[in-house]
Amino acid sequence: MEAISHAGTVLGVLAKDGVVLAAEKKVTGKLLDMSLAKDGGYGGSGEKIFLLNSNVVAGVAGWTADANSLINYARTAAQRHLLMYNEDIPVEVLAQRLCDMKQGYTQYGGLRPFGVSLLYAGYDPHYQFQLYHSDPSGNYSGWKATCIGANNGTAQSLLKQEYKDDIEVKDAIGLVLRTMSKTMDSTTLGSEKLEFAVLTLDPETKKPKAKIYRPSEIDTLLQSEGLAKKDEDAVMTSA
Q1: DSSP three-state, residue 200
Q2: pLDDT of 14-59, one tens digit each?
Q3: Which of 62, 125, 168, 192 gets the highest tally of CB atoms within 10 A of its CB?
């Protein structure tokens, strides 16, 4: 839990027509080769937001190596369900599978628990859009809006004030970005410090459609919300 409380913030908001996830990337060394991440293929080549299945996206906070192991396990569980039942895995069932594994690691001697919390943003025909959070103990819970990682208390109180039950995705995107700009440790928001994903329904096929934003798309989004770096710099110089 201590590792998670120092990890980059991950924030999720459930809207009536989708789910929005945003995550803060802590590792921004100048010598890191980010050329591959710049192009970022579908599914994201990031370190915080991952596609688990066509209907579930997850954001992770904690030890990245542990997270990678859990992500692989979740993807396999989702494919197993698809093979057996010929349908996408229900969101809560996937969260339960991961939590069963996490809980096992707290019970048997000689193994340490996974130092990772996850936010699951998903859709299934039974309960529509859902947002779940799970922690290293194997507990999980459903949320309308929540935050894990550093500064999660501040983010939670901001979300409590601004969240409305009938919020739509376009407003949820603004709410998420505004909250991130107030809770992130850095003074400016930019694609090198932010990962972003939205899960909605495709209007034609009526199937869930996950979009993990590329860095250039994140910058465009920040500009449209008036939170881009240029605006910040201009404010600083005028002040």
Answers
A1: strand
A2: 999 999 999 998 766 778 776 666 555 444 456 899 999 999 999 9
A3: 62
Q: Name residue, tokens 């130092």.
A: 115
Q: Which amino acid is at 207?
A: K
Kindly state the DSSP code that residue 191 receives in the 8-state scheme. Answer: T
Q: Which two tokens stand for residue 165?
A: 């039950």
Is residue 57 within 8 A of residue 233, CB to CB? The reply is no
Q: Which residues contact 45 (CB under 8 A, 6 or more apart)?
A: 36, 37, 39
Single-letter amino acid, residue 186: S
pTM: predicted TM-score of the whole model, two decimal places: 0.88
Contact predicate 16/166, CB 8 Å: yes
Other beta carbons within 10 angstroms of residue 15's beta carbon come to 27
Q: Where are the alpha helices (DSSP H) in the chain?
A: 2-5, 35-39, 64-85, 91-107, 152-162, 169-183, 215-224, 229-238
- Distance, CA of 161 to CA of 116 (rounded, Å): 27
